[in-house]
Amino acid sequence: MADVSHEGVHFSAQRAKPSHEVAANEPSRSRYPGVPALNASPQVAGVHSEVWMRALGHAIDHSLQSSKTHERSAGPPLFGLFWTRGRRGLRLATAPMSSVSISEFLAQSPELIRAQLPAFLSGYIAPDSDHGEVVQRSIERALESVSSQEWADLLELYGSLGQDYGSQPSHPLARELLLAFVQPLIGEGSDLTGLEHLDAAMAAIHAGRRVLLICNHLSYADTICTYGLLERMGRLDALGRLCTVAGPKVYADPMRRMGIAGGHSISVAQSSRLATNEVVLSPRESVKIARRCFNDAASEMDQGQLVLLYPEGTRSRTGHQGPFFRGVARWVTIDGVLLLPLGQWGGETIDRLSDDWMRPGVVCGRFGPLLDTRALVGEQGMSREAVLEACHEAVAALLPPNYGPVAEAPRLV
Question: Within a 10 A sphere around the Cβ of 383, how many other Cβ atoms?
Fold first, then answer.
């Protein structure tokens, strides 16, 4: 994707989703001497309107010529282009992935999707991070030796994910693409500790025990960051066995679905307690879906999968660990299950709540000792909710103080 400079004005034709609109009262500073900011007052901007119009015309002409050249080799762009304002001036960008349906995405030819996927995904990297090209090259390398049949198989699976509740399959190529995307974003200083507890959990899985991984939730990037950290620490067995419990939004658009396809998953209905819940289910439907997902989780663990559950049910809006949903109590007391607590932080710097960009960041995680529900329930006589509270405390003990739960906040809701 070309960067264009004209009369001191910089234009980028990198494919990316737009950032949020700048607030009306937010000052804007131009990086270019003699050129007004885009939202400068009419009195100021009017003086340079002719400069802007000439620059804009040249940039559009250059971008169209570049697009025609690229289209001859790779086909037309996946989706429509439009101008948007970024920190480095105007950007020629694609429509955000969240506005593109799965059917629209898959309506393109397999060859076209494959050719443009690296640039398309790297366009989600914030323009001020300078990591877009790194991510693009990483994805291109992951696709180099992929056969046409492997690619067709991935797209076929990709189109069927999340169509129903319960267990969802994965594809090895999707995992490679996931890791190619996230590894350049996991910065220096990232770490994963308490690996002796993870190793104990993996030994238990190989011995036939069920293991449920319990983690706090800060970001949509949490799961892919866990994958990236496990790969960096050489825990490939655990990485290949992850099975994430995920709500419907994770399957709703091409970007997130690409991530969830990297490992087994269990699609669950979102809790009616959440303000973001968009699907209204009858009590009977909710119970039926919950029972199915619960049974599928037990089945996945019986097949040697390490099921990953976020008991908060949604991302924290404050950065602090939130309360666990009481409905999760049945999950953490599945017959014979071992509970592996994980405290993880830093994913919220990679995928922030404040905008739609992704950026590099430092991500850390810490595993804690296994909790044996057979001992907690059978020997100590703890109730399901008491076991869930013990899980909450176990995760909280692994987090830095500024990520832990607020003292006066409830532990369960």
Answer: 12
Q: In b/e form, how buried is each residue of 98-134, taking b as 16+ CB within 10 angstroms?
A: eebebeebeebeeeebbbbbbbbbbbbbbbebebbeb
Per-residue tokens: 215: 């983690």
**337-345 and 364-367 beta bridge pairing:** antiparallel
Looking at residue 129, its amino acid is S
Q: What is the pLDDT of residues 349-395, one digit of tens each?
A: 999 988 889 999 999 999 999 999 999 999 899 999 999 999 999 99
Q: Which two tokens stand for residue 73?
A: 């080799």
Cα within 13 Å of Cα(356), Cβ side: 17
Q: Is 170 exposed, middle or buried (0-12, 13-18, 19+ CB in 10 A)?
A: buried
Q: Token pair 């006066």 is at which residue?
A: 408
pLDDT digits (tens, 9 = 90+) for 157-182: 999 999 999 999 999 999 999 999 99
Contact criterion met (CB below 8 Å) for 167 and 264: yes
| DSSP state, residue 378 | I
Cβ atoms of 379 and 385 within 8 Å: the answer is no
Which DSSP category does 393 fall into? H
Strand 191-193 to strand 3-6: parallel, antiparallel, or no bridges (unpaired)? unpaired
Q: Are 243 and 308 in contact (CB under 8 A)?
A: yes
Has this prediction a pTM greater than 0.85? no
CA distance 55 to 10: 9
256 with 158: CB under 8 angstroms? no
How many whole angstroms separate alpha carbon 333 and alpha carbon 376?
A: 9
3-state helix, strand, coil split of the chain in percent (to 5) is: 45, 15, 40
DSSP-based three-state secondary structure for 266: strand
301: nearest Cα among 243, 230, 384: 243
What sign does the CA torsion over 276, 102, 100, 223 have?
Answer: positive
Displacement of CA 384 from its chain's centroid (Å) = 31
Q: What are phi and psi of 344, to 5 degrees?
A: -135, 140
Asked if 226 and 365 touch (Cβ cutoff 8 Å), the reply is: yes
**Rounded Cα distance, 342 and 394, in Å:** 8
